[in-house]
Amino acid sequence: MKRIIIALTLSLICALYTPSFAQDIDRNVPQFVTYMEILGQGGLVTFNYDRRFTNSADGPGFRVGLGYVNLGQFQGYTFPVGLNYLQGKNGKYFELGIGATYGKIGIIDRFDNEARLTGNMFFGFRYQPEDRGLNIRAGLATLVGNIKKPEQENEAFFIPLPGISFGYTFR
User: Fold this and answer.
1) How confident is the model at residue 31 (pLDDT cuts 50, 70, 90)?
2) Residue 76: how many other CB atoms lie within 10 Å
3) Is residue 21 classed as helix, strand or coil in its secondary structure?
4) If DSSP codes are grouped into helix, strand and coil, which group holds residue 152?
5) Closest-CA residue to 25 (of 57, 53, 2)
6) Which of 20, 56, 93, 168 is a plausible cystine mate for 88, CB 3.0–4.6 Å?
7) CB atoms within 10 A of CB 158
């Protein structure tokens, strides 16, 4: 399973990297980003694709990701998806996001073996060049949902996770 995820991630990065070889930058196409996130909306580590809905470097956009964790008793996978909004200029943006994460999320699932859907939010700073180049995100992600304990009622949880990510911006 781990090899399949690594192969898919590398294939995605290679496929998305192709447009960066062009000499001229076309500002009439939406900006997109690929990045690796440590902690954050998908748990421990996720690989993500983020794209703006407009041709601007800021404004509304979406993200999808894939995560995998194998740390002793904490094993599982995650699929974070969400909408986000960037506000700012000159490559410096405040990011606000909301979405959902599906999967087995290690520490949350210590009580059962069920995959689950959790809500997530993100508040943070993003340095992202307007055309292309390295980007960095840092902020606070939260996971919200229910834990099903054996032979007990569901219990709500709220987990704040400080996260950071590194990636590449394309246009």
Assistant:
1) confident
2) 20
3) helix
4) coil
5) 57
6) 93
7) 9
pTM exceeding 0.85: no
What integer pLDDT is reported at residue 141 of this predicted model?
A: 92
Structure tokens belonging to residue 123? 């508040």
Three-state SS letters, 83-132 = EEEEEEECCEEEEEEEEEEEECCHHHHHHCCCCEEEEEEEEEEEECCCCC
CA-CA distance, 7 to 75, in Å (whole number)?
A: 19
Question: pLDDT of 86-96, one tens digit each?
Answer: 999 989 999 99
CB 49 within 8 A of CB 31: no
Report pLDDT digits (tens) over 61-98: 999 999 887 766 667 788 999 999 999 998 999 999 99
Task: Look at strands 45-52 and 154-170 and give their pairing.
Answer: unpaired
